[in-house]
């Protein structure tokens, strides 16, 4: 499953890829760095962030982190 991070002005095409979940492992991409930057440097924007999966299902940050919390994280 692939996940995307979206800010208010983003479209599905302009969203950054957070990463991909496969066989118990999460492979983070550029969007994960952007998300962590928002959380750490601009926490006031966190409420405006949306996570979307490849099936266009919208998730909250909490739901997304609940999904990946038990996965191995491996940078490509």
Structural notes for this entry:
The chain is of the alpha+beta class and 76 residues long. It is 26% helix and 32% strand. It is built from 2 helices and 6 strands, in the order E-E-E-H-E-E-H-E. The chain has a 6-stranded mixed beta sheet. Strand 2 and strand 3 form a beta hairpin. The longest helix is centred in the middle third of the chain and has 12 residues. The protein is globular.
Summary keywords:
26% helix; alpha+beta; 76 residues; globular; six-stranded mixed sheet; 6 strands; single chain
Task: Describe the structure in brief.
This protein is an alpha+beta fold and 76 residues long. The chain is 26% helix and 32% strand. The protein has one domain (2-73).
| Biggest sheet overview | 6 strands, mixed
> Total number of helical segments?
2
* Shape label: globular
For the record, give the distance between the C-alpha atoms at the N and C termini, rounded to a whole number.
Answer: 16 Å
- In percent, how helical is the residue content? 25-40%
Gyration radius, rounded:
12 Å
Give the low-pLDDT segments.
none
Total discrete domains: 1
Determine the strand fraction and express it as a percent band: 25-35%
What is the total tally of β strands?
6
Strand order of the largest sheet: 5-4-1-2-3-6
Helix and strand sequence: EEEHEEHE
The chain-level structural class is alpha+beta
Topology:
Blueprint lengths: L1 E5 L9 E7 L2 E4 L1 H12 L8 E4 L4 E2 L1 H8 L3 E2 L3
Parallel strand pairs: 3-6
Antiparallel strand pairs: 1-2, 1-4, 2-3, 4-5
């Amino acid at each position: 499953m692939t996940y995307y991070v979206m800010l208010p002005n983003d479209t599905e095409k302009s969203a950054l890829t957070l990463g991909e979940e496969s066989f118990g492992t999460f492979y983070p991409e550029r969007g994960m760095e952007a998300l962590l930057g928002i959380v750490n440097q601009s926490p006031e924007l966190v409420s405006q962030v949306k996570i979307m999966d490849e099936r266009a299902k919208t998730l909250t940050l909490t739901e997304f982190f609940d999904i990946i919390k038990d996965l191995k994280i491996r940078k490509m």
